Amino acid sequence: MAGAAPRLTALAEELLGTPVPVRIRAWDGSEDGPPGAPALVLRHRRALRRLLWRPGELGLARGWVAGDIDIDGDLYEALDRVAGLLWERDPADERGSGSGPNHGLRGLRGRLAALRDPRLHTAARELLVLAGPGLPPPPPREEVRRRRGVLHSPGRDRRAVSHHYDVGNDFYALVLGPSMVYSCAYWEDGGDLEGAQRAKLDLICRKLALRPGMRLLDVGCGWGALVLHAAREYGVHAVGVTLSTEQAVYARKQIAEAGLADRVEIRVQDYRRVPDGPYDAIASVGMAEHVGAVSYRAYAATLYGLLRPGGRLLNHQIARRPEPAEEAYSVDAFIDAYVFPDGELAPVGSTVSLLEEAGFEVRDVEAIREHYALTLRRWVANLERNWPQAVRLTSPGRARVWRLYMAASALAFEHNRIGVNQVLAVRTPGDGRSGLPLRAREWSG
After folding, report:
1. 183 with 76, same domain?
2. Where are the coiled-coil regions (predicted)?
């Protein structure tokens, strides 16, 4: 067999113990693998060095972000084909249970580390020869390193939020569209992205039973879409808090142009430092994923303390599937290094329990994971359609990060590896009057 690709395919199958599910196209132009499948393109030998020094998800991600690795063909199909190697449990995993994102990597790393097996030792040595001499390539500059401060302290959280959100408002406008809403839309058949985002904003307002004159706190307000909608359509006085300076600048401009500066305030402020409760309603949409397990009890207690008796909380949060106890705080390596530093996902049951421990009465949980898959596919399409401009506004590596994480996340929602839920909770007063209607989901009450 001539060329690097057939050798790579044979060696990979020997090491992995399973057929390679995509074609491999090597730096020398050779290609091998299943006919008609998308191709994993290794543009340089250093791509192979990245994979050998960090086998699994992070090595692939570094190669992708650096442009050493690419996909020729449908990105979703390629990610779907390699998901079994990256996210699903390796059949050789002797513990034999669970479906968390690290199980397949454990099996993959274990096989690559098992060099006492002479057969695997020979295959790994040949891969090292193919990779060529040299130290492991440095990680792309887009990767987060040198984290300072206590995990989920206000200062460290502010830096983590800035890494993700202060990429440039113009870049986000290309991806998100005119709504500038960076959370799961709420779809109806045949709808468009803007309509689905308006439907989501309105659903939140109705679940919170907003009425003129009420005070609304939006924790993690993003670019201000919810507070604008709530003030304009429901007549509330709203405060939005964010740790992103760029988001705040954009939101304040939108509020001023809408003539709502007397009713909507945007603060660059940690939710733990909001001084002016109580509020009649609180929304937390796509923010709690940044809170982390060590801080979630304090998060729930803080929101409870900021809400008046009888007030409602709408907590919209991505959730992961439950995992074995030893994997309870596992973090996705690519997401942690490139997308949401220090972000953590919890099962929805854990979220509900912690809200109840804080004193909330949980009244409704609506699972809408399919809606997020549809939303992400629209965002990916926006990014791909505006690719040259996205690269100019950020960097080639940053644009590649966003394309990979959004496409992979869409598949994760579609395959039920992760979900998203709207949890409606009430600070029910001592007399037990929740203020909710008797019939479920007649939100206005």
Report:
1. no
2. none
